[in-house]
Amino acid sequence: MDDRFASYDVTDKHDSLSWNEPTRTAVAERCTLQIADDVLTDAQLATLCRAKERLCPDFPGRPPTTTLAMIVQRIARKIQDGTRHHALPEAAECWRRGLDAIEAEAQARFRSAFAALEDAKADVVLRAVQHGDVQAEEWDRLPPQLFWSQRLLNDLVSAHWAQPQAWSAMGFGGPASPRGYVRLAANRRDPWEAIEQGDTPRFGWPRHHGGTK
């Protein structure tokens, strides 16, 4: 995973007009969050960690994320979405059942703990969950495709990309209150926004080059 914005760090704006005090407090709490004890079993936490590594890897050269801690906090606090599919249990129970089922799927297919699987085999298990092509009987109590879309992928991605390391890596300027964004037209940027490195921007990535202000 190359970093097209390697020289950019959104936290450099910490003391600027782009961040008000509630923003500073929220980001600081998010970045220092620790994994709570006694929320998941050791096996469940190891499975969650491996799934996170395959779906939302950390960014080389940047501080580690607290994605795992954010998911564990969600489970501990039994945080809900406001709505829930009728075939799924509440979020915390859904996570626990799903992590146990992923582990059982790894055992059924490879006779190994999911956390110990090499990348290719771990991806086989995750794709099986994604497509509902599962073997473990633990999925009888949990629809795999719904767990994939509404818990595993949704919660991990939401937590992972809500952190300043992710904002910096994708060139996102992050919060801007009370300053606000000014240059909103295509291929224009405010002076404090990221400058993309390299000559050929990736499809879908912003063309934030230094000469475009």
Keywords:
single chain; 213 residues; mainly alpha; 43% helix
What report would you give on this structure?
- There is one protein chain.
- With 213 residues, this protein is an all-alpha fold.
- The chain has helices at residues 21-32, 42-55, 67-76, 91-110, 119-131, 144-160, 164-169.
- α4 packs across α5.
- The mean pLDDT is 91.
Estimate percent helicity. Answer: 40-55%
Instruction: Quickly give the structural class.
Output: mainly alpha
Series of H and E elements? HHHHHHH
How large is the count of helical segments?
7
Termini Cα gap: 27 Å
Mean pLDDT: 91
- DSSP summary, beta strand count: 0
Strand proportion = under 5%
- Whole-number radius of gyration? 20 Å
Q: In one word, what is the shape?
A: elongated
Biggest sheet architecture: none
Which oligomeric form is depicted? single chain
Return residue spans where pLDDT drops below 50 for at least 5 consecutive residues: none
Task: Give a quick precis of the structure.
This protein has helices at residues 21-32, 42-55, 67-76, 91-110, 119-131, 144-160, 164-169. It has 213 residues and is an all-alpha fold.
Task: Note the topology.
Layout (H helix, E strand, L loop, with lengths): L20 H12 L9 H14 L11 H10 L14 H20 L8 H13 L12 H17 L3 H6 L44
